[in-house]
Amino acid sequence: MGKRQQRAAATAEHLLASAREVFETKGYQATTVGAITKHAATAHGTFYLYFKNKEDVFAKVMASVAQEMYREAGAPWSNDPRETLARATLRFLEVFEAHKGLWRCLLEGMHQSKAIEEMWLDLRRPFIDRIARNLDRSVATGQARPINTRLAAHALGAMTEWSAFAHFELQEPGPSEATPRELADTITDLWYHAVYAGVYDAPRQPA
Question: Which of 82, 119, 197, 198 has its CA at a distance of 20 to 30 angstroms from the CA of residue 8?
Fold first, then answer.
């Protein structure tokens, strides 16, 4: 890129980072374009060179975070489903915790804008699709019991998302009651027993 393009890209990234921080602290309704540009120390008109409106910048903020979260959760599948699930779930929770303020903001935004709701469904769909593909493979190879993999993917994905929201945003159970690793281990145990237990026996480690 030329210098002008580099400056434009840097400005857009700076505005996006500022928007993320403002959304995380103020919530969706209280966030305004003015609050974002003030935080970014840029002119009000500069915002509209890169984003259409508040809804547009929020969609891009959530896309950035969702991509990070689902990338971290995309652990390569190993021979041991429990090990894979534990690693992927912990990574998912770590990114969720780092941006926990955005999830209450997302719920607020979905109640105000159908476009925000549709945006989030589009962002999480690859996550659900990946779960379904892994379940399909496990059922086909005899590692998992026969189930409706599509419905199971939605249920298991929702369990993970809402457990994270309740723990990190609502503090239920609070940090003194469960660490992120303990939460990840519990979600993994529930997921494993719902799908694999009684069908797949993980190789035992030597004593």
Answer: 119
Residue pair 65/124 in contact (Cβ under 8 Å)? The answer is no
Q: What is the pLDDT of residues 56-110, one digit of tens each?
A: 999 999 999 988 887 777 766 667 888 889 999 999 999 999 998 999 999 999 9
Residue 103 φ then ψ, to 5°: -75, -40
In the block, residue with structure tokens 């145990």? 189
Specify the amino acid at residue 25.
T
**What single letter denotes the amino acid at residue 90?**
L
CA atoms within 13 A on the CB side of 25: 10
Provide the 8-state DSSP code for 167.
Answer: I
Task: Please give the average per-residue pLDDT across 100-121, as a whole number.
Answer: 92
> Is the separation of the CB atoms in 110 and 120 below 8 Å?
yes
Task: Give the separation between CA 86 and CA 106, rounded to whole angstroms.
Answer: 26
Torsion angles phi and psi, residue 167, rounded to 5: -75, -50
- Helices 101-112/114-140 angle, 10° precision: 120
Q: Give dist(CA 159, CA 181) in Å, integer.
A: 16
Domains of the chain: 1-51 (1.10.10.60), 54-195 (1.10.357.10)
* Banded pLDDT at 1 (limits 50, 70, 90): low
